[in-house]
Automatic annotation (TrEMBL):
Presence of the UniProt keyword tRNA processing in the record: no
Coiled-coil region: none
GO molecular function: glycerol-1-phosphate dehydrogenase [NAD(P)+] activity
InterPro entries reported for this sequence: G1PDH (IPR032837), Glycerol_DH (IPR016205)
Lineage: Bacteria, Bacillati, Bacillota, Bacilli, Bacillales
Keywords: Cytoplasm, Lipid biosynthesis, Lipid metabolism, Metal-binding, NAD, NADP, Oxidoreductase, Phospholipid biosynthesis, Phospholipid metabolism
Top-level enzyme category: oxidoreductase
Stored Pfam families: Fe-ADH_2 (PF13685)
Annotated source species: Paenibacillus xylanexedens
Protein name, entry field: Glycerol-1-phosphate dehydrogenase [NAD(P)+]
Stored SUPFAM superfamilies: Dehydroquinate synthase-like
Length: 384
């Protein structure tokens, strides 16, 4: 089954699911293949779009932006360009300043906005599209995150990483010729984002059983299967081969859709993501580059797994038995090392104080019950 047929099957399952969520019917065209961006002009024409805006930055212009712009122009359409500038640490942050830059560049006449980039540019464009009520189209330039097909936009607002529900892409053109060329550290980050699903899925069981939070078996299974496929293909991902990058991108797309179906990031983001978000905020406050999202998530997943396995052994609460089923932290680290990602906090450039701060505060970042929340609010309080 191709991706669009799989989406139709998930939609059907989700509509029959009695979990209590309002399941969103996913209506997204997905092209994941070599040469996918060549389909863009035809798609724009079919949709009747004559004026569009393309958002890119220095790296993503080279990776795909330049070709995208020429192909749209050659098809006789009008295209506005937004070249996002880097900040003083050489990065682009999805914050207030960048949101305004994108908004200022999108003319009211523009009929669609095309994100050419990885996680940050996608979140900026999806947020602006939701505010300006315009279709959002996706051209990923690296298999680095699962945020291409979701609706949530994690943004830094007043220095705090907060997620705002925005819009998913109307169509995604994931071109294997581009994704294969992305730096291996970005592919490794995408793998790290997927590895984090071990602890996010386990935390979702805890959220359900201890926090009484909503749980959807369809979204859970989609994410779990995507994770297992990545693990089955870890060597191909490590070699950056087309087969491996395609499996990884497929998994990232599916993980994004699992968030989209239930309009929440629960399947994809647990304690490991909350730790990563705090580390990101602290790095930015220290004037350092925040490091790739999936790189932080992968390392945080291994760190939190150690705590979660201790919790399963010592708490006496049956609900934490799910953490016993996690792979050993040493195995998680071995996989990260195999794909070429960082494996220690030193390699991420975070200090021991930042790690301690993250472990002590990350549970307050999102209103979710996780093992990390239990450790901080129950265990540590008991121990005084
Ligand atoms: N919406 C959602 O559900 C999710 C959102 N996210 C969010 O995504 C963001 C992180 O995204 P991530 O992809 O890790 O990183 P970024 O989008 O921040 O990009 C990191 C770097 O990759 C560069 N780059 C991108 N593509 C290429 C390429 N083909 N060749 C060379 N360089 C390239 C970028 O260049 P440049 O600096 O020029 O941009 C940038 O330097 C975080 O804010 C995170 O919270 C993560 C997961 C899910
Ligand atoms: O990064 C995410 C999934 O990979 C989503 O993060 P949030 O839960 O913070 O929105």
């Amino acid at each position: 089954m191709n991706m669009n047929e799989r989406i139709a099957a998930w939609n059907e399952e989700a509509q029959q699911c009695a979990c209590g969520h309002q399941h969103r019917v996913v209506d997204m065209l997905i092209h994941l293949e070599a040469g996918a961006i060549q389909r863009l002009p035809g798609y724009l024409s079919e949709q009747g779009y004559r004026q569009v805006t393309v958002v890119y930055d220095r790296h993503t212009f080279r990776a795909a932006g330049s070709d995208v712009l020429s192909s749209i122009r050659e098809a006789g359409m009008h295209v506005d360009e937004i070249a996002l500038p880097e900040n003083r640490t050489g990065d682009i942050i999805a914050d207030e300043a960048a949101i305004v830059q994108v908004m200022l560049g999108v003319r009211l006449e523009s009929q669609a906005v095309i994100a050419v980039g990885s996680g940050t540019i996608h979140d900026l464009v999806r947020f602006v599209c939701s505010k300006m009520n315009k279709p959002f189209l996706s051209i990923p330039t690296a298999a680095s995150v699962d945020g291409f097909t979701s609706a949530g936009a994690p943004l830094i607002v007043s220095g705090i990483k907060q997620t705002f529900q925005a819009v998913p892409p109307e169509a995604i053109f994931a071109d294997m010729n581009i994704l294969e060329q992305a730096p291996q550290v970005m592919t490794a980050a995408g793998f790290g984002d997927m590895l984090g699903k071990y602890t996010s899925l386990a935390d979702w069981i805890v959220s359900r059983d201890l926090g009484g939070e909503p749980f959807c078996p369809v979204a859970y299974r989609m994410t779990e299967e995507a994770l297992h496929t990545c693990i089955d293909h870890v060597q191909a991902i490590a070699e950056g081969r087309a087969e491996g990058v395609a499996v990884l991108m497929d998994a990232l797309i599916v993980s994004g859709i699992s968030m989209l179906i239930i309009d929440h990031s629960r399947p994809a983001s647990g304690g490991e993501h909350h730790l990563s978000h705090i580390l990101e905020m602290d790095l930015m406050q220290a004037g350092e580059r925040p490091v790739l999202h999936g790189a932080k998530v992968g390392v945080a997943c291994a760190l939190i797994t150690v705590k979660y396995k201790e919790l399963a052994q010592t708490s006496g609460e049956q609900v934490f038995g799910i953490y016993d089923q996690l792979p050993e932290a040493s195995q998680l680290i071995a996989w990260l090392e195999q794909v070429g990602g960082p494996v220690t906090t030193e390699q991420l450039g975070v200090t021991p104080e930042m790690v301690e701060h993250a472990f002590n505060t990350a549970h307050t970042l999102r209103p979710r019950y996780t093992g990390l929340r239990y450790i901080n609010e129950v265990l540590n309080t008991r121990l005084g």
